[in-house]
Amino acid sequence: MAAALGIPRIAGLTEAFVLRRLNDYAATEQPTNGRRNPMHQIAACLLPADRGAVAAYLSRQPPDMPLDPAPALAPLHTAPTPYQACAACQANAATDFGLPAPNLSLQGTPCLTCQLALFRSDKRRYSAMQAQTHGPSSVDLRSLARYIGALPTVPSNAHGGWEPSSAEAISAATTLATQGDPNRNIAACASCHVDTSGMIALITRLNGQVPRYLHSQLEYFSQNSAREVLSPIPHIAVALTGTERRALADYFAGQPILPK
Length: 260
Hints:
Blueprint: H1 15-27, H2 39-45, H3 48-59, H4 80-87, H5 109-120, H6 127-134, H7 138-149, H8 167-179, H9 190-193, H10 211-221, H11 233-239, H12 242-253
Helix pairs in contact: 1-2, 1-3, 5-6, 5-7, 8-12, 10-11, 10-12
């Protein structure tokens, strides 16, 4: 997957080279040629000592190391109680409340761990989630992510009042999802959100998700107020029309659920 996305392997490169590249990224702004590279923001978030530690670590790894994310090994015994707060909205896709909440059973532990950490650090801004994640410790949140990630997948509940897109719109969205649109610098959604192996496991799975939730997220990301750090989605969402955002939500909602 990394090769398909044009992402170079970095395990086994010299420490000096990796450190120089990280420092260069941290010192420069995002390029203005329309191509988005998250490394500028990633490197800028690291302290100089952290960049040195990352460079030293990578230089000691074998060149063919896959660099899979480390599994979350937080204890599970404390997770069921805080999960009840999540289940009030997510377990039933918030059907009872009319909220566009996600079906969390579709996501794996690495993705859930990453998203909870983003809410806790205020890099994702949604007041309800920030309130839920500011109290527990980081260990408790990793435990919660592991607990939910181990739950069996269940189909998403349909929300009442949701009007599906036309067949023509969904057909066009299928092309966007699987092939992208090079003319608008839109990458194929499936290139990251379907094959969620390796480091891509940190990215959310869209297949089988609640359409209202998917649409609400694309609408949010299309707004100038979206401040999701390290995510290319705002750039993509802004480039889409309202019809395309809704049709993409319908397309992915209708796709088979991915195995964990």
